[in-house]
């Protein structure tokens, strides 16, 4: 297989590159990434000398550059991770999300039509389903749950999903879509809840919890997401959507307290701050379809995965200290000052 991985210098895309090269050493990977604030070549350090791996810096929204890459590389599989991924940033600046997540996906789909591929896989999110009530723990998102987005981020991801599925129906492009719950693990950018809380706790800084911290997320260790996508691109049915999630539901406060406890830090570091506008209450995935069709099941429980993740941040201080550069500090100040 010759796979074009877009957004491969980011959190999940980077983990996917490592996963593919480890589990399918005969396959070739071309990573296309714009290296926005979230892209980090440090994440790919371990594979840069692998002859089966190459990297191209380009935006998925740059039609000319994308077509040139397809013409030269002729990938047979495309996995699209590239996106603006942070909900809070989408509330600050929605336009960039429309440009990358919708227009960029459109350019990739056009390239796939023009040059021909065996599979285009769109990496989507459970956020396209909106949220579930906190008290209805009997409810889960299935692939049939109507799309009902809350943020500019999730709306842009829903638009990209629909576009991909439209290219399947109209042009017979071999498309699959996966919708995954919240990931955590190594190389997670420290604007997101878990790495932000680990790093703030390590620095004895306040841990900003939105609202009352009662919102629920369904956490999945990133390697389990990678294994699910791997099964879908090799055996998933085209035109289908697959939900991915591990039944690891936790309130944000539970997650934050687990991190503080593991690091032996006091709960007095928790600071309740103004809630996120439009904040989704609860996400919970029903992953029956991928389990039944492809035999996928997550291997890592939250209790194990969170300890592994904390240990990774303790062992890889160089990686996250490099990330905390000037532009990230300015964002942090803007987002949390006076909140
Ligand atoms: P991330 O923000 O860590 O990484 C995104 C990557 O995309 C970065 O390397 C960035 O440089 C690159 N990128 C951004 N704009 C680009 C462009 N125009 N052209 C090329 N590259 C560009 O994101 P992530 O958390 O790794 O998420 C990856 C994908 O998975 C996204 O599509 C996201 O919507 C989806 N997803 C994320 C989660 C999660 O919990 N993080 C869960 C489900 C789905
Ligand atoms: O569900 C999948 C989605 O998960 C992905 O599609 C997104 O790309 C990814 O960013 C993530 O979205 P969330 O908004 O759920 O993740 P985030 O880490 O930003 O926030 C998790 C929860 O923690 C959410 O309820 C908001 C809360 N939170 C977040 C931050 C950054 C806080 O309480 N304090 C914070 O400082």
Could you walk me through the main structural features you see in this protein, from its secondary elements to its overall organization?
It is built from twelve helices and 13 strands. It is α/β, with parallel strands linked by helices and 339 residues long. The chain has a domain of 235 residues: Rossmann fold, CATH 3.40.50.720. Strands 3-2-1-4-5-6-11 form a seven-stranded parallel beta sheet, sandwiched between helices. A two-stranded parallel sheet has the order 7-10. The model has no long low-confidence stretch (mean pLDDT 97). The structure holds nicotinamide-adenine-dinucleotide and 2'deoxy-thymidine-5'-diphospho-alpha-D-glucose (DAU).
Layout of helices and strands, plus pairs?
Layout: E1 2-6, H1 11-23, E2 28-33, E3 53-57, H2 63-73, E4 77-80, H3 87-92, H4 94-115, E5 119-125, H5 152-171, E6 175-180, E7 183-184, H6 193-202, E8 207-210, E9 216-218, E10 220-221, H7 222-235, E11 241-244, E12 249-251, H8 252-262, E13 270-273, H9 288-294, H10 302-315, H11 317-323, H12 326-336
Parallel strand pairs: 1-2, 1-4, 2-3, 4-5, 5-6, 6-11, 7-10, 8-13
Antiparallel strand pairs: 9-12
Count of strand segments: 13
Order of helices and strands: EHEEHEHHEHEEHEEEHEEHEHHHH
The number of helical runs is 12
- Give the overall average pLDDT: 97
CATH class of the domain at 2-187 and 220-248 and 282-301: Alpha Beta
- In angstroms, what separates the terminal alpha carbons? 48 Å
Q: Give the name of the CATH architecture of the domain at 2-187 and 220-248 and 282-301.
A: 3-Layer(aba) Sandwich
Rg of Cα set: 19 Å
Bound molecules: nicotinamide-adenine-dinucleotide, 2'deoxy-thymidine-5'-diphospho-alpha-D-glucose
Helix and strand content put the structural class at alpha/beta
- Helical fraction: 40-55%
CATH T-level fold name of the domain at 2-187 and 220-248 and 282-301: Rossmann fold
Strand residue content: 15-25%
In CATH, the homologous superfamily of the domain at 2-187 and 220-248 and 282-301 goes by the name: NAD(P)-binding Rossmann-like Domain
What is the 3D form? globular
**Low-pLDDT ranges:** none
